[in-house]
Amino acid sequence: MHFNNSEAIALKARLEELKQRIYLHAEAVSDNMKLFFDNKPRYIVFLSFSDGESRAHVCNGSGNSIESSWKNAVNSMNKKVKKLKLQPLWIKADLVKDIKECSFDAFIDYVSSIKTNYFREGIALDEMFNIAFLEQEVNANVFIYDNKVSPQKQISWKNMMAYIKYNLGIKLELDEKSLKRVWLFTTLGFFHDGTECHDLNHGRLNNGRRVIEVIDEKLLRSVIEKSSGFLATQVDESGKFRYGYFPCFNKEIPGYNTLRHASTTYSMIEAFEVTRDEELGRAIIRALEYLAREGIEVVEDEEGITRAFVIERTMDNEIKLGANATAILAFSKYTTVFDDQKYVQLMKQLAEGISYFQNKQDGSYVHVLNFPDLSIKEEFRTVYYNGEAAFALMRLYDIDKDQRWLNMVESAFEYFIDNEFWRQKDHWLSYCSNELFKHRPEKKYIEFNLKNASGILDFCLSRETTYPTLLELLMATYSMIEKMKRDQYGLDLLDSFDQKKLMAAIEHRVEHQLNGLYFPEVAMYYKAPQNILWAFYIRHHSFRSRIDDIEHNISGYCSYLNQILLKRGDGSGD
Question: Which of 45, 200, 297, 436 has an alpha carbon within 20 to 30 A of 387's alpha carbon?
Answer without folding.
Answer: 297
